[in-house]
Design brief:
Length: 274
């Protein structure tokens, strides 16, 4: 699964990397080394433009752009936006079947750029201790060449049925996850569905309504290029941020005593983090 990741590149850098226009309208979130659920994130979408009357012009070429999305999908039919706290991830195996996700999968797919994502490897349970006391070692999965990872995602717009009908809609997203491959299974059994550049067009194509063939786990040629970097338990606490969170554990400052306990508790306070 994916419950925390890093996204530190500027809109200008992402525009160049993803060949997209900047549609964030100056509201792109600042660099974040510890992105948590319910936070604003940058996504890449591809849509047909609208004409002067606001109608979609399906005959015009689709345009790729960066957009600000809130992490945690709120289905269009939801009565309360709080449901998004439980929908930060979407399983690839059931995305086309679940009512909360299937329409977005068909018509509103996106890419979520990331420097990499965090996952916690569960260690052996100490003798006589309950399973919840098993130590958890954080890892950062990132590309080996500094390029962004592109998580497959879906997005939705939602309007509060009790709110102002003229207010702008809430635009939210969910990261699609799949079974882990290769060395990643040593850390966790799930991973974000990574989209290599040669699949970006097909995934984003707004005219493609059947995306089931694109939900297969990435090949080992993609997974084997990733670095699995042990990092400090500083990342456990969502209040911690900064480049030190991406340092290798043997170079980072570790928490201990009460600090480590508080940090571990904060990990589980994040909706959907594990």
């Amino acid at each position: 699964m994916c419950g925390r990741y890093a996204a530190t590149k500027s809109p200008a850098a992402l525009m160049q990397e993803f060949e997209a226009a900047d549609g964030t309208e100056g509201h792109a979130p600042a660099e974040n080394y510890n992105v948590a659920p319910t936070k604003d994130v940058v996504g890449v979408v591809e849509r047909h433009p609208r004409d002067a009357e606001g109608n979609v012009d399906a005959d015009a070429p689709a345009e790729r752009a960066l957009r600000v999305l809130r992490w945690g999908l709120v289905p269009f039919w939801a009565k309360d936006a709080a449901i998004g706290n439980r929908m930060i991830n979407t399983r690839a195996e059931t995305a086309a079947e679940k009512p909360a996700f299937r329409k977005a999968l068909s018509r509103r797919r996106c890419l979520i750029p990331a420097d990499g994502w965090f996952e916690w490897k569960v260690g052996p349970v100490p003798d006589g201790q309950p399973k919840k006391k098993a130590p958890k070692e954080p890892f950062f999965m990132t590309s080996g060449d500094g390029s962004s990872l592109a998580f497959a995602g879906i997005w939705e717009t939602w309007r509060d049925p009790k709110g102002d009908p003229d207010a702008p809609p809430l635009v939210t997203c969910s990261i699609i996850t799949t079974e882990a491959r290769g060395r990643l299974v040593e850390v966790h059994d799930r991973m974000p569905l990574l989209m290599p550049p040669d699949r970006w067009h097909d995934w984003l194509d707004p005219d493609r309504t059947d995306a089931t063939s694109l939900l297969e786990p990435p090949g080992l040629d993609v997974v084997d290029t990733l670095e699995l970097r042990p990092v400090s338990t500083l990342v456990n606490n969502v209040r911690n941020n900064g480049p030190q969170l991406l340092d290798r554990a043997d170079e980072a400052v570790e928490l201990d005593g009460e600090g480590a306990a508080a940090s571990e508790a904060a990990l589980f306070d994040v909706p959907g983090a594990r």
